[in-house]
Design a protein that fits this description.
Blueprint: H1 23-44, H2 68-78, H3 87-91, H4 94-109, H5 111-124, H6 129-138, H7 146-155, H8 164-183, H9 185-189, H10 191-222, H11 228-253, H12 257-277, H13 288-291, H14 298-313, H15 316-330, H16 336-346, H17 351-374, H18 381-395, H19 397-403, H20 406-409, H21 414-421, H22 424-443, H23 449-478, H24 488-500, H25 514-522, H26 526-531, H27 534-554
Helix pairs in contact: 4-10, 4-11, 4-12, 5-11, 5-12, 6-16, 6-23, 7-10, 7-14, 7-23, 8-10, 8-12, 10-23, 11-17, 15-22, 15-23, 17-21, 17-22, 18-22, 18-24, 19-24
Length: 555
Amino acid sequence: MMISALISSTSPLLPINPRTQNPLKDKYLCPLKSSILCSQQQNLNPKNTMNQRRKPKFQLINPVIITPSHERIYQNKDKPKKDLKNGFFQSINHQMMVLCGFGYYVNGFRCLPWLALNFHMAHNLHMQPSTLQLVQNSGNLPMVAKPLYGILSDALYIGGAHRIPYVSIGVLLQVLSWGSLALIPVASEALPALMACVLVTNLGASIAEVAKDALVAEYGQKNKMPGLQSYAYMAAAVGGVLGNLLGGFFLLKTQQTKSMFLAFAALLTLQLTISLKTREESLGLPQPSNYSLVRESISESIRKRYSDLMMAVREERILRPLLWVVSSIVMIPTLSGSIFCYQTQSLNLDPSIIGMSRVTGQLLLLSLTLLYDRLGRSIPMRKLVGIVQFLYASSLLLDLVLVKQINVQLGIPNEVFALCFSGLAETIAQFKLLPFLVLFANLAPSGCEGSLMSFLASALCLSSIISGFFGVGLASFLGITYGDYSSLPLGIMIQFLAALLPLYWIDNVPMSQPAAEKARNRGRSKRSRRNRRIGKVGFDSVYSYRRERESEVQR
């Protein structure tokens, strides 16, 4: 009998593990094995002919025989071991780590020139609180057009790349604007020129942020690294800590805002050098030829990207959490300008105290980001966001404590209270966005990362601007002006009540992240997965053949 299909040239047919050897099975496997070897010798004899061969009733065709020991080897090949502690930093590209880490660090360090600019407008230009807040929010208008920058970044390649060139363009615009504020006197003294510089620097910042967010989302999806967003958030938090710390120190010692503008322009120049030296193909990102073999015009490519973006945004799993996070920001009137003027003009707090309060907030943000990266993914997203929203609403009442001087009645000086709690609400508001950034980065369709992430950033920025305009209107309606802050406690209470309203429609937030769902699916019973492997099928087939041989012998 010929059973040549069962013979493997690379591995034995039935390698038996001594630890799992069964005497009852060996009793039947030994005759089977000997008959197979005899059949192999007969097949090598040229006298054998086809009519002398007795075909079995069934025959295996190229079976794959896997023993339990082999199965463990294949499982280890399919799932290579990773060092959970150092796996992230070992797997990320070094150039990507530098470009992403330093880029987000500079983005967080932007608080240094902005702290100087707010101090310059409040003390040197003597702006009213509503005017100061109006300049702050109007300067953010270029960030509303982030979807356009994202579509251009997805569709239009510059020198064979579509992420890093946009980072370089955005950084260059920021260098020009902050350098003008530092070196040209008219730019920092005349309100129209100052407003133009603010618009240009925010335009450059928005372009660079869109490209960086898309780069992080695309690289994280390609290399299956969902923790890349947390790494970028931590880098921005570190930049915010150092920026606020150095900003408060320089304002306390020198009060020279122009020198701070010039220092930040020098830091931006270093970032520009890094981005110009980094080649996008070294990061392993797709090249233009990988997207399409047919050359498309720019207008057709932009139209296609816009259609893909609208299709992605209309998906329920993206639209519902997007509407919730936007509504949770837009309906809360922001009184940051009024509170800043109250702290510096009414309480006469040193700029160093305000800067150190932001340092405390950024340190807390860094700690929360690390905690979320370690443990936050195991907490249901809806529950986490609900807790954070309630804490944000409660932290707004800390400004009421400072305005009503309740801290002084408790024996806590204004400097100590402002240092510990002044930046807490802003920190919690920033941390609330992290789960949504991770969510949308995981849900972004391939080739639409820049468009979707920029659309999210634009929606958040637009909601912040509308919230700021609501705050300006509320301050004007309540009569909060320079030297008259008697109605500020009422405005803070309105903020607190408005911050509680989004909890009523928190059902729009998904219960968990997509990555957590995949992890739970991978955590199913290993035994059920092993039973579905082809090795089990091979064993069952061999045992079936063995039973057939026994029945033939008995006949």
